[in-house]
Amino acid sequence: MSKAQDPFYIVKEEIQESIDKLQSSFHQWERILPDTGEQVHLTKELLANCESIEWKVDELNKTIDVAARDPSWYGIDNRELESRRRWTITACTQVGDVKKSVVARKENGNSASAMRRELMKLPISHQSDRSYQYSAEDNDDFIASESDRQMLLIKEQDEELDELSASVERIGGVGLTIHEELLAQEKIIDDLGTEMDSTTNRLDFVQKKVAMVMKKASAKGQIMMILFLLVLFIILFILVFLT
C-alpha cells in the first residue's frame, strides 16, 4: 500500500496541519497583551485545539499498536513502526509545550488579576473624586461596545467548534475504514487457512493411494506411475495456487 493510500499517512497529514495552525495561533497569542478579551478568547481556543490534537494522536497510536501485532500483514516492517511511533511522540511533545505555556501564563494572569482586585478594594485617600467619575453616556457606550465584542467572539467560537466537529467526524470515518479493512483481511486469512487444510487432506489421500499402487506395481510400472503422479502434481499445483 502506497503512502498516499495508507490511512496512517492520511490522518498524519491532517494532524500535522492542525499542529501547524496551533503553533501559528500560539505565536499570535504570545504577542497579545494579557487581560484583554482577545487574549482570553484565544487562550480558550488554544487549549481546546490542544485537547483535540492530543485525542487524534492517541487514536493514531491505537492503530499503530494494532499494526504492531502483525506488521508483515500490513506491508510494513519494524523500522516503519518505529518511525511512526517517533512521529507521534514528537507531535505530543509539540502540543504539550504549547499547552504548558498557555496554562502557565493563564495561571499567572489569574493571580495578577486577583491581586489587582484586592488592591482596588483598599481605601485610597488623597485622590480626587473627579478622576473616578464616569458619565452615564460613557458607561452606555462602553457596555454596548463590550456586548458587540462578546457577540463577535461567540460567533467565531461557534464556527471553530463546527470545524472541530467536522474534523472529528473525518477521523471517525477513517477509523471505521481501518476497522472494516481489518475485518476483511481477517476473513481472507480464514478462507486461505481452510483452503490450505482442504488441499493438504487431498494431497495426503493421493500420497496414500500412490504408496499402495507402488507396492503392487513392477519397477517399470513404478517409473510410469512416478511420471504420471509428477504430471498430476504439477497440474494440481497450477490449479490450486496459480488460478
Automatic annotation (TrEMBL):
<dbReference type="InterPro" id="IPR010989">
    <property type="entry name" value="SNARE"/>
</dbReference>
<dbReference type="GO" id="GO:0048193">
    <property type="term" value="P:Golgi vesicle transport"/>
</dbReference>
<dbReference type="InterPro" id="IPR015260">
    <property type="entry name" value="Syntaxin-6/10/61_N"/>
</dbReference>
<dbReference type="InterPro" id="IPR000727">
    <property type="entry name" value="T_SNARE_dom"/>
</dbReference>
<keyword id="KW-0813">Transport</keyword>
<comment type="similarity">
    <text>Belongs to the syntaxin family.</text>
</comment>
<keyword id="KW-0472">Membrane</keyword>
<dbReference type="Pfam" id="PF09177">
    <property type="entry name" value="STX6_10_61_N"/>
</dbReference>
<keyword id="KW-1133">Transmembrane helix</keyword>
<dbReference type="GO" id="GO:0005802">
    <property type="term" value="C:trans-Golgi network"/>
</dbReference>
<dbReference type="GO" id="GO:0031090">
    <property type="term" value="C:organelle membrane"/>
</dbReference>
<dbReference type="GO" id="GO:0006886">
    <property type="term" value="P:intracellular protein transport"/>
</dbReference>
<feature type="domain" description="T-SNARE coiled-coil homology">
    <location>
        <begin position="151"/>
        <end position="213"/>
    </location>
</feature>
<feature type="transmembrane region" description="Helical">
    <location>
        <begin position="223"/>
        <end position="242"/>
    </location>
</feature>
<keyword id="KW-0653">Protein transport</keyword>
<dbReference type="InterPro" id="IPR006012">
    <property type="entry name" value="Syntaxin/epimorphin_CS"/>
</dbReference>
<dbReference type="GO" id="GO:0005484">
    <property type="term" value="F:SNAP receptor activity"/>
</dbReference>
<protein>
    <recommendedName>
        <fullName>t-SNARE coiled-coil homology domain-containing protein</fullName>
    </recommendedName>
</protein>
<keyword id="KW-0333">Golgi apparatus</keyword>
<keyword id="KW-0812">Transmembrane</keyword>
<dbReference type="Pfam" id="PF05739">
    <property type="entry name" value="SNARE"/>
</dbReference>
